[in-house]
Amino acid sequence: MAKTALITGITGQDGSYLAELLLAKGYTVWGMIRRASSINTGRIDGIYRSPQRENTHRDARLRLVYGDLADGSVLNRHVKSIRPDEVYNLGAQTHVKVSFELPVYTGDVTGLGAVRLLEALRECGHESRFYQASSSELFGLASESPQNEQTPFHPRSPYACAKAYAFHLTRNYRESYGMFAVNGIQYNHESPRRGEAFVTRKITRAAAAIALGQQETVSLGNLNAERDWGYAGDYVKAMWLMMQAERPQDYVVATGETHSVRDFCCRAFARAGVPLTWHGEGVNEHGVDQAGRVRVSVDPEFFRPVESECLRGDASRIRRELGWAPEHTFDELVGMMVDADLAALSGGRRGAPSAGKRCSNAA
Ligand SMILES: C[C@H]1O[C@H](OP(=O)(O)OP(=O)(O)OC[C@H]2O[C@@H](n3cnc4c(=O)[nH]c(N)nc43)[C@H](O)[C@@H]2O)[C@@H](O)[C@@H](O)C1=O
User: Fold this and answer.
1) Which of 1, 137, 220, 350 is the residue whose CA sits 20 to 30 A from 144?
2) Which domains does the chain have, with CATH numbers?
3) How remote is the CA of residue 81 from the centroid of ligand 1, in Å?
């Protein structure tokens, strides 16, 4: 029998890749979307025809319903009527820096939202499996590197604190009520569908726009921060595998490789055909192109009150037990993001320059 899945956050990067994966596997997919004054289904338009856009292709097995993780009554209603076999809770206020400005809202949606959904499932009584999108941000000021499933949490932001609450409640529902409820502790995962407020997409978009003469420079925050960046399309496969496992378990999902924001810039700009040289230090640091024009500058506005400086995951448990491994390298990830932005900004008229130019450092 074909399975039914419910995805919160289906209009986000991960939601769109996961919906495609589940549809390809024969699932019926229900996606919960929030009501907004403008249409926000851009990432799933290829598989869903919104009522306002009659001419696009529609997969009849993908259905959208309005809902909000802040509203428990609507979650109860959807769970009762859909009776999903699998629930993927990807919805959240996901921006770490924004969470310092919206700590209560972030706690409500990102933390309590998960519990509202778990409660809806418990009350419904239907045996659904539950996936919680946990985050490497839980480790924050990590006591060891790389981090694994045993590494203690030290969350460094309201976002991470809310995710910690959701993590523990997911585990608690598993232990208290015997639910199949699992946490995927996912490290940063990116793609051409990543929102432009996240650093990777901000950089690739800017590199493409600068290469095409549409933008002069880009301002960034902490260039020294290091992240374990993978490809989102690989990470939704890990979500699905976790939900098919014999017993419910929490897993770290990561590449095991870190790069600094500065390194990401170097590779992205080189890929776009604008190799950078670095000058200065701290907020005076800047990257210049071959003609000496400043292309990357540092602006204190983009720093966070505290930072998770270096996060690197050890995904050996999921590799060993579920056979998951990332299928795309860091260079492939940067390449696909820059190429997609070059194509989008040039209306698809421009081929991507070859990768591999080295970045020089003149501090
Ligand atoms: C796993 C985790 O992954 C994501 O959280 P994030 O790591 O905060 O992602 P980001 O792309 O906003 O920042 C990455 C790093 O880059 C630094 N950085 C420098 N300059 C800028 C800058 O200009 N903008 C931004 N956004 N970051 C900057 C920034 O300080 C940080 O150190 C979310 O999906 C989250 O939901 C999640 O769970």
Assistant:
1) 220
2) 4-194+230-257+308-328 (3.40.50.720)
3) 37
Query: Where does ligand 1 bind, in terms of residues with CB under 6 Å?
Result: 94, 96, 135-137, 187-188, 197-200, 202, 220-222, 225, 227, 261, 302, 304, 307
- For the chain, give the mean pLDDT: 93
CA distance to 93, 171, 334, per residue, from 180 (Å):
24, 9, 36
Q: Whose CA is nearest to atom 6 of ligand 1?
A: 96
- Residue 247 makes CB contacts below 8 A (sequence gap 6+) with none
Question: DSSP of 90-130, one letter per residue?
Answer: --S---HHHHHHSHHHHIIIIIIHHHHHHHHHHHH----EE
Residue 85 exposure: Cα atoms within 13 Å on the Cβ side: 11
- Residue 199 CA to ligand 1 center (angstroms) comes to 6
CA distance 80 to 77: 5
What would the pLDDT profile of 12-50 be if each residue is shown by its tens digit? Answer: 999 999 999 999 999 999 999 998 877 788 899 888 755
User: 127-176 pLDDT, tens per residue?
Assistant: 999 999 999 999 999 999 999 999 999 999 999 999 999 999 999 999 99
Q: Answer yes or no: 165 catalytic.
A: no
Annotate 89-125 with b (16+ C-beta within 10 A) or e (fewer): bbbbbbbbbbbeebbeebbbbbbbbbbbbbbbbbebe
| CB-CB contact of 183 with 242 (8 Å) | no
